[in-house]
Amino acid sequence: MEIELRPLNLGEILDRTFQLYRVRFLTFVGIAAFGAAILLLWQLAQVLGLRFLFGKQWPPSAAAAMGGVGSILSWGVFVLALAVVLAAMNRAVTALYLGKKIGIAQSYSEVRARWFRYVLLSATVLLVAGTPILIAGVAIFVPVSLAAGIRSLWGANILAFIYALAGLVLLVTFPLSVWLMLRYSLANAASTFESIGIRPALRRSVLLSKGLRSKIFVLLLIAVAAQSLVAGFFILPAIPLILRAGNAVPIGMNIYTFGMGFISHVLTLPIYGIGLTLFYFDARIRKEGFDVEWMLDRAIEAEKVAEQTSAPDGAGAGFDPA
Which of 140, 153, 266, 309 shows the greatest Cβ crowding within 10 Å of its Cβ? Predict the structure, then answer.
């Protein structure tokens, strides 16, 4: 499958995303399964750990706090695994653009040598984009944890004011976090395709994503909506059983919900991964004339292949017939 490189609008990028996904469905699903499997194993370990703590008669508040921390860490684990997944998808999309064959193992083998770079890059983006949310979380957690003392000392009015202030902080910081994430959303593709380090990749993403961030946000919304719909389709029938079980959710029910989450991630993650790679190519085409550079490289490569195939035996290796 060989695809023409040219500037695309949002609708064309989305259409090409689903086209590539449909053509190589099993390949992209297999690539996505790696990150989803890591998240699944982490969630199962978290559930088993909480059950162990409850079995040791830990206070419910302490176990609940551990569960909250574990849920936050789950997102971190998934994002870090996502870094390698997105890098592998970038290689797969690039191969499809070149008209070359690509598989799951080959996609990962091409990014294996630099996997730690992609993880560090993803962790950096997560830290930068997550800092405003962390600040908002502290701003909300502190008044909530001191609510009883504040109410007894100063009454309900000051407590309501603090809650309103914390909500305002969250209202401001969440869009800021999303904007930062969009600003660095092309860093992984830049690092993978151009073989550059963390700081150059971040700078490249800032440059390339300018003017495309609202469109990338639409892609993110579509991916999140698709993941929610797929997960809801599988988990919705189990909700009555979960509500009936209350706090004592059977381990089998946990495994079922995590398994359905695994399926939803595997099926919808390629939408985001393929789309980001297409936005990266589109940004370079618009700002750097990458399509012309690509065609020249392809022409030179084709000319070399033609010379090698048409040359007499041994001529391509420096053999002198005379």
Answer: 266
